[in-house]
Amino acid sequence: MKLTQIIEALLFAAHEPLSANSLAKTIRAGAKEIEGKQRERLLKTDEKKVEEALKRLNKEFEERKSALVVLEGPTGWKYYTRPEYAQWVRHLFPAKKPDRLSAPALETLAIIAYRQPITRADMEAVRGVSVDGVLQKLIDRGLAHITGRAEVPGRPLLYETTAFFLEHFGIKNLEELPNATELKYVELPTAETKAGGEGESDSEEGKEEREVSQEDSAGEDSEEKDTAAGQGEQETVSAVGAGEGADG
């Protein structure tokens, strides 16, 4: 009995994906119930041997042009049908035709994926619009979920992607996202920096208003002084005129 055959049987019988570690433990447990050289060989099964056997199993599938392939997802290994058979497999599940994600939903999902855990306010700071509707859609589709609360005033909810997100996009972990390392450290606006910017803007506007007010006040004072001076001049002219009249 080959190790690849045992693994094939386990993956077929399992309802959930199996990790290399789980497969190795199960194989060692089953080996205790048999006798002979095969027992000793299987009792030495570890993760490395399982992964090597999985590679051989996929090679066997390819050689015999099987419609199946064994792939590792975020939670373990499982059977998948090859993409070229999708049009037939799809007809087995006519009801399972979810709508494609809209551009705003994809943008929001990308923000979560690269910057998780992240608050709704920070998502909106990046996108510049409300994300309430698209965020709820992502949660309903099982692509994002709530993971806790941020340690900041107000304790806003934090959001992350799910294991289904990884499976849906065919990756094992977040490190397999395109340009994952670079995009994680690109500086993006946050709710805090945006609020700070608005505060600075308000402060500048207030300063300008105060300066304008001071200028207006100075102008009014100047006008009052000019008026008083004018009145003084008029009084002086009248007095001089009166004096001249008296002399005459």
% residues in beta strands: 5-15%
Given the structure, what is the number of helices?
11
H-E string:
HHHHEEHHEHHEEHHH
DSSP E strands, number: 5
Residue share in helix: 55-70%
Stretches with pLDDT under 50, minimum 5 residues: 200-248
- Looking at CATH, which topology of the largest domain would you report? Arc Repressor Mutant, subunit A
Domain unit count? 2
Corresponding CATH architecture of the largest domain: Orthogonal Bundle
List the strand order in the largest sheet.
Answer: 3-5-4
Helix/strand-derived class? mainly alpha
Q: What does the radius of gyration come to?
A: 38 Å
Summarize the biggest pleated sheet. Answer: 3 strands, antiparallel
What does the secondary structure layout of this molecule look like, with pairings?
Layout: H1 3-13, H2 20-31, H3 37-43, H4 47-63, E1 68-73, E2 76-81, H5 86-89, H6 103-115, E3 118-119, H7 120-127, H8 132-140, E4 144-149, E5 157-161, H9 163-168, H10 180-184, H11 191-247
Antiparallel strand pairs: 1-2, 3-5, 4-5
Explained architecture:
The radius of gyration is 38 Å and the shape is elongated. Strands 3-5-4 form a three-stranded antiparallel sheet. Strands 1-2 form a two-stranded antiparallel ribbon. The protein is built from eleven helices and five strands. The chain starts with a helix and ends with a helix. It is mostly helical and 248 residues long. The protein folds into two domains: 3-92, Arc Repressor Mutant, subunit A (Orthogonal Bundle); 103-189, Winged helix-like DNA-binding domain superfamily/Winged helix DNA-binding domain (Arc Repressor Mutant, subunit A, Orthogonal Bundle), CATH 1.10.10. 60% of the residues lie in helices and 10% in strands. β4 and β5 (157-161) form a beta hairpin.
